[in-house]
Specification:
Length: 362
């Protein structure tokens, strides 16, 4: 069972401002806070970070005067409709469980968990408490990816039978997020998770995956190149490939490129968000536009736009009782692909997703 609905209070008081609190004031949290100030009908009334310097700097920058270094204290002291967790993965389970036990709806950044066991426990805690849970899996909310989703849903190229979702870059992610260089796992867990989620969003759930990984950059611990072959439940085949070791004439970070072949044509998401659709009637190319948000900056605009879109979606969900597109239950399927990809890369075998989920009792 998935559907968790917000309290009747939230649904009945459509005009009342929803009260949120942010936990984690690090590198990415600024995007959450900027987006919250643009989403209608919501206010961030308190923030929390265990690092008091970061907390103070964020409070000053965003003019938020209710600050806490302890999330439990904040949840006890504030009247909240939801918490937005923008900490790194290690703290996700205790914080999600804390919110669930307090009966508060919760958003949690990706990667939701480092193990399927932790993810299952968080989903269970929110189900048991009857609180909505959304994983902040934002890449599928990028305007260009949504435009591709609409084109495929309208059968613009007939029935898709083959696809490629590709992210290749040499952008230095480690300067903003130094912890990414430290983990035994890197690109699939941090970035591939988004790209696998896009493959699921566009082509449906997956029943088998094969993966191969390598590390090119000698100064990091984890893999920085991964190539994955997916068989979808629909019968479609897709390739999901990602690399942070790819030097191109034009650095494309953070663009995801797409190729989709269908029974009536082909679709390509080319560099600079150009969407090309070719059928026997001809070829069209449009540049997908981004919303005008005052706080976005190159090269992050597509990601920043997706943060705004997913957070606006969350508020819609709280108001209407709709289940978030990237609910905890939904994200278990994406996390299973991450787990299965590492397993496949290590064992050099294809991994059946149904068997993995069964083994983990999901
Ligand atoms: P960060 O380390 O810069 O910031 C995390 C902050 O959380 C730190 O300030 C830390 O002090 C605080 N924190 C940790 N545990 C806490 C706790 N228990 N209570 C209160 N505060 C706590 O990390 P980041 O780069 O901002 O990444 C945060 C999350 O966002 C990660 O999971 C990362 O994968 C994700 N992220 C997502 C995107 C995206 O596009 N979706 C982009 C970047 C990062
Ligand atoms: O989206 C993310 O999680 C980021 C980045 C795009 C830089 O990989 O870590």
């Amino acid at each position: 069972m998935d559907p968790k609905t917000p309290s009747t209070d939230m649904m009945n008081s459509a005009n009342e401002m929803l009260r949120g609190a942010l936990i984690g004031c690090g590198f990415f949290a600024k995007n959450h806070l900027h987006a919250w100030s643009d989403v209608a009908g919501v206010g961030i009334v308190a923030i929390c970070d265990s690092d008091s310097e970061r907390l103070k700097a964020t409070a000053n920058e965003f003019g938020i005067d209710r600050t806490y270094t302890d999330a439990a204290e904040m949840i006890d002291s504030e009247r909240l409709d939801f918490v937005d967790i923008a900490t790194t993965v290690r703290s996700h389970r205790p914080l999600v469980e804390l919110a669930a036990h307090a009966g508060i709806a919760v958003i949690c950044q990706k990667p939701f968990a480092s193990t399927l066991q932790d993810a299952k426990a968080m989903v269970h805690a929110c189900d048991k408490a009857d609180v909505p849970l959304m994983v902040h899996e934002n890449f599928r909310w990028q305007p260009a990816i949504q435009a591709v989703g609409r084109a495929l849903a309208s059968h613009a190229i007939g029935t898709p039978y083959w696809g490629r979702v590709s992210f290749r870059s040499a952008f230095d992610v480690f300067s903003g997020q130094p912890y990414l260089a430290e983990g035994a796992r890197f690109i699939i867990e941090d970035l591939g998770i988004h790209i696998l989620d896009i493959a699921r969003f566009l082509f449906g759930n997956v029943d088998q995956i094969t993966a191969s990984t390598t590390r090119v950059n000698p100064s990091i611990k984890g893999e920085d190149v991964a190539t994955m072959l997916l068989r979808h439940e629909s019968g479609m085949t897709s390739i999901v490939d990602c690399s942070y070791a790819t030097h191109l004439p034009q650095e494309l970070f953070p663009q995801t490129l797409l190729e989709v072949d269908g029974t009536a044509g082909s679709l390509r998401l080319l560099s600079d968000y150009r969407l090309q659709i070719h059928t026997r009637d001809g070829t069209s190319v449009e540049t997908v536009s981004m919303p005008a948000l005052s706080w976005t900056s190159r090269p992050w605009q597509a990601i920043q736009s997706s943060v705004y879109a997913i957070q606006a979606h969350w508020i819609d969900c709280l108001r209407t009782g709709q289940k978030p597109a990237t609910s905890g239950h939904d994200n278990l399927q994406t996390l299973a692909l991450v787990e299965a990809a590492y397993d496949s890369a290590q064992t050099r075998r294809a991994v059946e997703i149904a068997s993995l989920l069964k083994a983990k009792q999901i």
